[in-house]
Structures are given as structure tokens and as C-alpha cells.
Hints:
Elements: H1 2-20, E1 44-48, H2 58-61, H3 70-78, E2 83-90, E3 96-98, E4 104-107, E5 118-120, H4 127-135, E6 146-152, E7 158-162, H5 174-178, E8 188-193, H6 197-203, H7 207-231, E9 234-239, H8 242-254, E10 264-268, H9 281-284, H10 286-295, E11 300-304, H11 305-310, E12 325-329, H12 336-345, E13 350-353, H13 356-377, E14 388-391, E15 407-410
Amino acid sequence: APGGRRAALEGAAAVAAFHALGGTGAPPAMAGARGGASLGAGVEVMGHRGAGGNEKSRAAAGRMIRENTPASFAVAAAAGADGLELDVQLTADGVPVIWHDDKVYWRERGGGEGAPFECSDVGDFTLAEWRARVGGDAASGRPAAQLGRPFRNVDGTKTIQQWDALVEGHLPTLEEALASVPASADMLWNLELKFAEARSDALRETPEGRAEWEAVVRRAAERTHAAVVEAGARAFYSSFDPDACRALRDVVRGAAGAADVAPVLMLTDASFCPAGGHADRRRSSLAAAVAFVEEHALDGMVCEVKALRQDPAFCAWGGPARGRWLMTFGDLNADAEVIGWQLAAGGICGICTDDVVCARNACQRWRESEAKAAAAMLPQPRDEVPLRVVALPAVPGVPGVPGVPGVAAVRPPAAMGVKA
């Protein structure tokens, strides 16, 4: 599709800018695409919203690549990510687009910093409206609107502030996002389904609303999975919303031969949500999330890493031996020591991080240390003990050293564990 080709070019330009600004990282591995996502023995480094989320502060965002854009995905791949995490929401006409927050704060460009922001849901726009008024397109290479976000102030409060980025990019459709990294990179995509939580909680309160809500999540699951299949992408799905997880499971397993292609994982902040947590305990309790995953035969879980630091034994719940995906997310996944701790704990199959280079280097150091430890456990060759020739009486049936009658070559008795 033309939009996909333009998104790929936008990503390539961002990679060039990344290296020009001093960025380091290996290019994507040029392995052939493997097709379905499967639970392997390694640990996947997943770029959070591409090259990292922009939400810590306005100043931090201004030094970053705009999250969830083709530019961010391409740079994370160039930095060595094994996979990319992104957030999927549907427009009013059912097109999957990439946007993280529940709300969209936006205003027309040129109005000045004092101009008020509009507040909308992604679902308030058709795709055409989204591109024209908010997201922009690959040709423009930036959002159509001046975006805002609730950034934290010095006193700890949050206010809606202008959201700028060092490297811009437009807000893509899912199709454009999947085209932003070459297929030869064999990228693993983590597609997180997002919904406006206040609306979803309100709909669930009545039987009529509940039926409408289940139709909404089913539609989101179907449209997202269709885009993945069309792109031939290697992917898995996740969501904080339990109903979305069930809908994804049904859609994926209802497709012929798709059970091994797109695993479905439950997301939980395990009570460490900075916004105060979710009303639904399955979203904010490790125990409740485990019960839900096992009851509905999901493939695993994506958990806030702080919960595993608090309960290290839980790491044993995941991993290939158990047949369960256990991945982590959170600010601490930009800390090399925390990443090393997860690798040592075992059971973790993926780390979603805002610092791909840090995580990649931490994994490399771990692999090297493991290789050294494994080599040290191998039987070591004994030091060669020089032969000494001793004269022995000729004994019938015992061969001597050729050409020297009555002389045999032996090792010193001490070398054989025998006292001299």
C-alpha cells in the first residue's frame, strides 16, 4: 500500500537521523521471516512504543522520538530490538490506528501555547478525520494537530501541556506501523489493544451496555488480527481489558492454523499503576490475573516488573518448561541491574523497555557470563605429566619399549594417585 511504503521511508529517515545524532546499535538481523510467534528459550527485548514512551515529563519528551510512530519503530529496530510493543485503538469506521492514551488532547497548529486543547476519544474520528485533524499522514511526517498530554509538574500534579518531540512522526494506522520495519528484520510485534476505560466501565454496568461492549471488543480483535494476517507479521496480543483478551483468544483460535501464530497475554500492573490503579482487580492484582489467565486458557501474562521484584518466586510460573509466556514492563526495565536480575531468575521470556540499547547490552553481558560459567563447569584437561623411563625386569607377556629390551614407559606413581 502507498501509505505503508511512505511509512517505511519515514522510518528509514528517522534511523539516519538517529545515527547522525550519535545513536548506536546494530541494524536489524537479516534473517528470513519465521512466521508465527512461538515460545522459545531466549529473552526477547521489546521496544516500548518503539524507542520508548514520552510520558515522564514534557522536557523528557522533547528529547525523544515521538512514541508509537514509524520513526520510533524503525529506530528501535536499528538499535537492536527483537520486537516492538505498540498500542492499537479503532477509529469510528473500524480502522486500527496506533495511540496509547485513553484521551486525545489536541488543538490546531499555530494557535500558540495559550490556546485550549480539545479532548476526544480515538473513536470519535473516522480515519479520514483522524488524519486530517489529529494524526497527519506519512507525506507530512508529523501529527496534523499540536498535541497535548497530562505531564507531571515539579509539585507532583499533572496538567495538560504541549507535547513536542525531538524527532517527529505521524500517528500511523496499524498497517503503516507494520510496514515501517523491513520484513527481513523478522520483528516480533506486541499489539496491545487499548480502550477508553471510563466508557468501557460504564457500558459494563447494564446488560444492554454489556452486549454493546462485547461487540466493541470483538470488532477490535477481528480488525486487528485481520491486519496482522494481511501483513504476514509475527505477533502476539495483550490487553489490560479481560474482555478484550477473551475476544482475541476466540478470534485467533477460530482462525485456521492460527493458534501458534498469535498468542494472547493478559496485562496487569499488579497494584503498581502510577495513575492509582484500575477498578477491575484482574487488571491490578497479580493473583487475580493468574486466575483469569488459567481459567480462560490464555497463553501467559505481561506484568509490571516491580511485582516480580516483590515476589521473585513468581518468575517460576512462566517460561518454556511451563508452556507460559511471562513478560515484564515498567520503568525499571531501563535499568541494567534489574534486567540482569530477571535473566538470572529465569522464567522471563520478554522485557519491554524504554531503553533498547541498555536492555540489549544487559542481555549480551548475561549471555557472555553464562557461557563462561558453563565453560568452567566442563571437565578440565589434566596437566600432562611427562613420561619417565624406568628400568624394569623383563616379564614374560609384558611388552617393553620398542628397541629397548626390558624397559617400559610408565607415569610416576604419584601422578596415578599412588604414593611412591
